[in-house]
């Protein structure tokens, strides 16, 4: 599905209504398929913007939130040995992983807006978002992994590849 065509087909009023709907609390809805499509579009757009950003700006200089230092230190304290270059889905989704992630994520409730909203996260940080290379994660998991990837230089190959292709 071409996301630009879907957004354009909504028109100004439809896009405004969609934005309003996405700002309401989750318990205001049942399992509305249209809402799921809107959430998927929002997550896709976020992923696209983020990948364009790390392709255009040296990631080691990026600041994703006001509390990157806190996120990074807490993340590396909790997940010392997590391989962020090539994530294993079980490191995010297994029952054992969920038990470890839950207190970490909850630490940022009220600190990071929409800390538990769904977003897309690349498994292999040297590759783009594709169906095979993407997992659904919470927003704070995304920030934790991506802040660490930026600081530890794992996103630099994406930036360097774009620079080389422009030469």
UniProtKB/TrEMBL annotation:
- Residue span of the signal peptide, if any? none
Q: Name one GO cellular component term.
A: cytoplasm
Which part of the chain is the Polysaccharide biosynthesis domain? 35-159
Task: Cite the PANTHER family for this sequence.
Answer: PROTEIN PBDC1 (PTHR13410:SF9)
Name of the protein described by the UniProt record: Polysaccharide biosynthesis domain containing 1
Q: Which organism is it from?
A: Myripristis murdjan
Name of the gene encoding the protein in the UniProt record: PBDC1
